[in-house]
Design a protein that fits this description.
The chain has helices spanning 2-26, 38-62, 66-90, 98-118. It is built from four helices and no strands.
Length: 120
Amino acid sequence: MERKVRQTGVGLLVLLFVVQPIISLASNEPKADRFMASDKLQHALVSAMLVCGTGFVAHRHFEASRNESVAIGVGFSVSLGGLKEILDARLPSEQSSWKDFAADLLGTLAGAAILAAVIE
């Protein structure tokens, strides 16, 4: 059962990396703030990787429990996503977007689900 759960988690990550270039090719409006844009998938992927990476390090190297590891990963990912949007709002060359933060949250949830399924 554990092997099947790990294979599912790896399969989900591979699927995200395969879908991202397809969405990039479909996006012909570079400045438009659309939900189905490559930049939203990038936000989600980075958030999922932050949760998984941070949670895995907390679990393996600091001996945090599964729930603690997931909480640490989620907190780190949401904090960085929120900080990025705050900085984007302050920089004239950047554009802050609630859709970017929504993509961050979706990626964080996916990463938390993968992390919870993978660690013991």
